[in-house]
Input
Amino acid sequence: MKYQGHLSKMAISCEGDVAQYCIRLDNQEIPLNEKIGQPIRIEYLAEIHCQGCGRKSNKSFAQGYCYPCFSKLPQCDRCIMSPEKCHYDSGTCRDSKWGEEFCMQDHVVYLANSSGIKVGITRHSQIPTRWLDQGAMQALPIARVATRQLSGLLEVIFKQYVADKTNWRTLLKQDAEDLDLAVKRDELFELCHEEIDELQGEYGLQAVQLLYDAKQENFAYPVTQYPTKVSSFNLDKNPVVEGKLMGIKGQYLLLDGGVINLRKYTSYHVSIDC
Output
């Protein structure tokens, strides 16, 4: 069938043993798991409409915004990528109501195993979606904190010893080797106990809670075959991507001729045949 609309990041649910995916085009959702093993064709129709204001843009900023929105919206501010630099308390948040809803809420610091072990943060309400978006095979919450800034400060402490980024090429070459994340959690708590104590002393034990008994989650993805060599399609350079769909992991489609990160092309107007 042929579909047309503006891309958003894929919807993912975790029902049963394997993650379930849908491509989202405006208000349409196209189930993808059933398409694995079949041909798929994606064509970029040379239009981008900002997901913030809807205006036509020649370029996408911060995955789907025009430059004016990128420059003024809170979800595009520098503290989104560096949450420890949150400036809400300084009264300079781009939108205080947005900050209250998204930043001044409980956050979780976690360990995940996708391309190897990494530390990350997410709002408590985004579990397990955040882990599935990253293609994590395993994930374990290790702390619960009162604000986004506190999650960033704690992440900075932990990333002295573990990575905070996913290696996308490794992610798409194979399943990650099983790890006991609780062992790594305990190692980090021991290595970082002085800095953690200092953070708890400044903000309070209720604001920075370490999680010793959280359950490790395990995930599987609908992949029939990983590529032997990972090469990435680029819709800006070549507007047509086609091939046989071999699998889906994180926000990537794995085709027999390469991979594409659909989230990167949020707000792109495309047609899809599958």
